[in-house]
Automatic annotation (TrEMBL):
It is a peripheral membrane protein. One of its GO terms (molecular function) is ATP binding. Keywords: ATP-binding, Cell inner membrane, Cell membrane, Membrane, Nucleotide-binding, Translocase, Transport. This is ABC transporter ATP-binding protein. The keyword ATP-binding applies. It comes from Paenibacillus medicaginis.
Length: 260
């Protein structure tokens, strides 16, 4: 088991935003967390990496790869991110500093995780870019010189650089057109097969859930109303809210040119 969350609650000063959530993610699993806007999906994912905004506090238990995350010193939690745990976000532009090249982003990340040799850093960066369909020519480029799909690929390359056990993919396709979105998800699926990492996949899009998820948890108003295997939830949803979400989801064909 890679991640075990028990009775996790997240509070602001005057409100509880996430209520006693429990879930378990196994090694190599594609776990979809689905729910309407504001249901608490992002807060849950932030708590896993000790990334909650400072006005919020979490209680309960988050065990990631044997480590009790909520009680880790912040320096230890920082080294966990990137190593054991990595994030890819919807706002891939916000993940990059505009005046730093792609190569400098790699470099910074590698130095923060003690890759001391410059030669090794460049070699790793080029291999990582190649593994997501880019190449070393992207290293000297600035983020604005890449398309949305290319930037999201670069952010996945950086996130997977140090072989995390768990990749949190938070709405990674929302800002992309549908062809780029399918390519990115195919890429994630391929990388998952290669590396064996588990993916916590946060999404509104049931087409992607149907296609990739092995486990699903449905969140509403800060609680998980239903969870289980993808087959079970999709074929026999128990909760009204899940049924509504599934019924409201468009069933569109996957663009033919990116069908696996
Ligand atoms: N720093 C904060 N302080 C107070 N409330 C917050 C804070 N961050 C988020 N919230 C509130 O917590 C709730 C859950 O937010 P969260 O971002 O986790 O939702 P979400 O399910 O990820 O939504 P979306 O799909 O739109 O990203 C929302 O009501 C949000 O307004």
């Amino acid at each position: 088991m890679i991640l075990s969350i028990e009775q996790l609650s997240i509070h602001s000063r005057d409100k509880t935003l996430v209520h006693e959530v429990s879930l378990t993610i196994r090694k190599g699993e594609w776990y979809a967390l689905v729910g309407q806007s504001g249901s608490g999906k992002s807060l849950l994912s932030q708590a896993i990496g000790q990334l909650l905004p400072p006005n919020l506090r979490a209680d309960g238990q988050v065990i990631l790869h044997g480590l009790d995350v909520l009680n880790l010193p912040s320096s230890r939690a920082r080294s966990l991110r990137g190593g054991t745990l990595a994030y890819v976000f919807q706002d891939y532009q916000g993940s990059f500093t505009p005046f730093r090249t792609i190569g400098q982003h790699f470099d910074e990340y590698q130095k923060a995780h003690d890759v001391t040799s410059a030669t090794v850093r460049t070699q790793q960066a080029v291999e990582a870019l190649e593994s997501v369909g880019l190449d070393g020519r992207f290293l000297p480029r600035y983020p604005f010189q890449l398309s949305g799909g290319q930037l999201q690929r670069a952010s996945i390359a950086i996130a997977l650089l140090l072989s995390p056990e768990l990749l949190i993919a938070d709405e990674v396709t929302t800002a992309l057109d549908s062809v780029s979105a399918h390519r990115i998800l195919q890429l994630l699926a391929a990388k998952q097969r290669q590396t064996g990492c588990a993916i916590l996949f946060i999404t509104h899009d049931w087409r992607h859930v149907r296609r990739y998820a092995q486990q699903i948890a449905v969140m509403k108003d800060g609680t998980i109303v239903e969870s289980g295997s993808s087959k079970l939830i999709l074929e026999n949803p128990q909760h009204d809210y899940t049924r509504q979400l599934i019924q409201a989801a468009p069933v569109l064909p996957v663009p033919t040119e990116v069908k696996p």
